[in-house]
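Figure 3 (text version): structure tokens given as input.
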């Protein structure tokens, strides 16, 4: 088992993997089928998925367990398989990763609304996440990665549940895909301030809309919490249908590589991709960051302050529009 905390204390950026669902669809995952069920039904394909990212240069891969909480699996009539699916997800990733690559147990949202908007209580959410984390630890993960959360209370429940199950390090990302906020209205600066004291080793963003939107969220986090280790795992842009049969993501590996340097300039410590990203995107990230040295923290904070002072107008806003247009090319 590798030591995530030790790895994060070393120089350089830890390269994560890319998309899971879209990659498995390319490997033959039937339309509408939950990727987590493939851990039991097609383990060979799951291991091939992991191997692709390791070959591309990932230092850490995520288990195929994003939708592995009991309520999420109950939506697939598979709640009774919660333990087996998560243990197997971890074991498959571990088999491919060996001792050289970190394996982080992926935990996504439950799919239920938290009280008072929904029926899921904080205590029950903690229980669900603790159950999943315990199974992932049993399967051999090196840490727990909580991702794509939008509700701050559910995020806190996931962190607490993970800590109830294990002493392994915990990382967390939220998705800011609603005009700079999560679907539940959380701003990146509020998220990082609320989560940084909950014994997590790194905090950040994943999924979202454009690369630029994710970069803006990371920048806000860096300015709000200068001492926090940051994560970025953005989508390869937004999906669109081509010839009404194929889903296409327009961000190329080269565009992703260009943005890797921008995320690096915010002193992001863990960097990968989310929906639509492929091993080619991850290979491009790694190549772009070879020998990269981040600027001093004081320089980053000063630049962020100057950019914020423009208030999103003038040259700064024009540059952002140009970056968005470029992503669509």
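Below: residues designed for each position.
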């Amino acid at each position: 088992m590798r030591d995530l905390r030790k790895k994060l204390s070393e120089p350089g950026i830890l390269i994560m993997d890319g998309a899971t669902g879209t990659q498995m669809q390319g490997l033959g995952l039937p339309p509408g089928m939950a990727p987590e069920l493939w851990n039991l039904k097609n383990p060979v394909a799951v291991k091939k998925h992991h191997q692709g990212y390791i070959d591309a240069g990932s230092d850490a891969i995520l288990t195929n367990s994003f939708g592995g909480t009991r309520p999420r699996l109950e939506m697939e009539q598979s709640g009774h398989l919660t333990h087996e699916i998560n243990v197997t997800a971890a074991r498959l990733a571990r088999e491919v990763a060996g001792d050289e690559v970190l394996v982080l147990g992926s935990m996504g949202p439950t799919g239920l609304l938290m009280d008072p908007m929904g029926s899921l209580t904080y205590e029950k959410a903690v229980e669900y996440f603790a159950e999943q984390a315990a199974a992932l630890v049993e399967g051999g993960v090196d840490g727990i990665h909580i991702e794509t959360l939008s509700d701050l209370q559910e995020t806190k429940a996931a962190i607490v549940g993970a800590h109830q199950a294990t002493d392994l390090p915990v990382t967390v990302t939220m998705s800011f895909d609603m005009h700079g906020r999560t679907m539940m209205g959380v701003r990146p600066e509020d998220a990082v301030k609320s989560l940084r004291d909950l014994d997590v080793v790194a905090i950040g963003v994943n999924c979202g809309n454009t690369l630029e939107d994710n970069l803006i969220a990371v920048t806000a986090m860096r300015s709000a919490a200068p001492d926090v280790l940051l994560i970025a795992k953005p989508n390869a842009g937004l999906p669109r249908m081509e010839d009404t049969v194929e889903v296409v993501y327009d961000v190329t590996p080269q565009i992703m590589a260009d943005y890797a340097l921008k995320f690096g300039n915010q002193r992001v410590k863990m960097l990968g991709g989310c929906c639509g990203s492929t091993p080619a995107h991850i290979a491009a990230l790694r190549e772009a960051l070879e020998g990269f040295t981040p600027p001093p923290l004081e320089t980053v904070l000063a630049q962020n302050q100057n950019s914020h002072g423009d208030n999103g107008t003038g040259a700064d806003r024009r540059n952002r529009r140009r970056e968005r247009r470029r992503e669509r090319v």
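Strands lie at 14-15, 60-62, 102-107, 143-149, 170-174, 202-207, 230-234, 239-242, 246-249, 268-271.
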